[in-house]
Fold this sequence. Notes:
- The complex is a heterodimer.
- By secondary structure, chain A is mostly helical.
- Chain A has helices at 8-28, 32-56, 61-91.
- In chain A, α1 runs antiparallel to α2.
- By secondary structure, chain B is an all-alpha fold.
- Chains A and B meet through α1, α2 and α3 of A and α1, α2, α3, α7 and α8 of B.
Amino acid sequence: MDGLLVPLEHVLVLAASLFSVGLMGLMLRRNLIFMLMSLEVMLNAAALAFVAAGARWAEADGQIIFLLILTIAAAEVAVGLGLVLQIQRRFRTLDMDRADRLRG
Amino acid sequence: MIQTLFYIAALIALAATVAALTRANAAHALIYLIVSLLAVAVLFFLLGAPFAAALEVVIYAGAIMVLFVFVIMMLNLGQAGIEREREWLQPHTWIVPGIMAALLLLALLLAVRHAPGLTSGEGVPPKAVGIALFGPYVLAVEIASMLLLAALVGAYHLGRRFIVRPQPTGDEESA
């Protein structure tokens, strides 16, 4: 508990729960927008674990990895939403099961 | 006291995430997702990482969610937009996320009031993050900038045909 308000395990359990919710959303939802949101939730849960670990040992490294995760999330969302626009334009739907071929 | 605030914010984060990913309507899901990100920002603040909390609000809940809003609005263009938006913004759609966000604000204010050391004293101050970022991690910063450049080029390429030009030039192949 040194350096942290609550035991590190509790934060890690929360991060794992958020990650699991995101994973379930990714696997169960078929709407492309919701799948991208689930990816955001999963990246965010990983970032929470990093920041909590950084706070536990009072090191800056956790927040730096958080910054890198933020960069990855921004890049992924920009490209992913561009793909969403193209898929909507080409298939007239956002259902991912309709777009399961590489050659549309 | 502060521990209780942590668990409240954690519960709000979990509940808002579950609510976001189980909505049928993408715009309603976005509201819950923003609340979830704000809750994680409060968690970062309580964990002694104020720089990460600010970035979470500015970039995640601000910039990335605005991209989602843009795309959802682009996909819904044309068909009776005003009535649809009026129907989306009924009070029962935003009252629960509003209460969650108000609770988070309350938790943040209480945390600032009861433990002012959280913002600077304990935890990792932004100065340490900056020194480490441009010291041993400078290569990671360069890689992140190249990743962002690649994403910029890729997103422009993918969204290129949605950009309305005043008069079409002949150098673009027909879509």
